[in-house]
# Entry
Amino acid sequence: MTEFKKRGVILMNLGSPDSTEVKDVQKYLLEFLMDGRVIDYPYLFRKILVGGIIVPTRSPKSAEAYKTIWTKEGSPLVVFTKQLQQALQQQVSVPVEIAMRYGNPTIESAYANLLKKMPDMEDVIAVPLYPHYAMSSYETAVEYAKEIHAQKKYSFKLNFIKPYYNEENYINALSENIGPYLQQDYDQLLFSYHGLPGRHLKKSDPTGIHCLKAYDCCNLPSSAHATCYRHQVFTTTRMVTERLGIPASKFSISFQSRLGKGWLQPFTDKRLEEMPKEGIKKLLIVCPAFVSDCLETLEEIAIRGKESFMKAGGESYSMIPCLNTNPLWVKTIAKWVNEYVAGERNMVLGL
# Structure
């Protein structure tokens, strides 16, 4: 370990309701969906859509969904993030806190906890737990952390680990996590990534002329790839399947959790219904857009996804857990933090 007593680490994740009560789910969904980087419509229209239609309609259903995965300790996403914090703390010499973009614990509480431990703190290394860049995940987490930092006029500097979709150690950890499941008999491994509206890709394209405009855009060299979610998930999939020696006929990509029209395709829920009819009866499914298991993996994929696939004629269905506290994943984050503390900044975006 490298000793440096004036730096702290914050692990940043999406968030969760405080409980499965409808009122708590409503509060969480309102904060989440009113984020202009999630639903990127004009404020007044977004307020009517979210507050008047989506949240009142969706909250009771979401509350029931959360009940199917809730643990004695609380929300799985928060629990896994806390466990990751504890595991990482054993491998780094600087204090580690966690923060959620929506809900609790907040980024402000994470800053406060670090300052209690280290009043003269000079630097915070924030680790967004999103491997791929998207305005509705990585970007909103970073911008919100910066906003609170500026509002509170903290004197410490704020730095963010860059998206690590193609970083060698992350790919190794993800591959190791998937590898044991390939020992069983399977017809295909489905990489199910969280969906995005196509307009988000275009908005994140600094060139304005590449994403979803150029033919085969994700395979053409461009500066747009640094902020292109679609290119990055394709890259992660390619690197992992090459590392594991999975032939092209044995894997595919889909996108889950869509809300509205114009989202990236193919859709996971549709593919799960179609695959058995295509002779894919034994399925493995993994969700690399998430590093911590949550509602979208444990309920949407592991429960509802399995029911849909088996009802359509499937014979076996296994969801591969997220990285959570995989030892190699913990070691990977520790490596990034320790390299930064030692002055090796190649993995860090300073802001």
Remarks:
- Strands lie at 7-16, 96-103, 123-128, 157-161, 188-194, 251-256, 282-286, 316-320, 348-350.
- The chain has two domains: 7-165+327-350, 177-320.
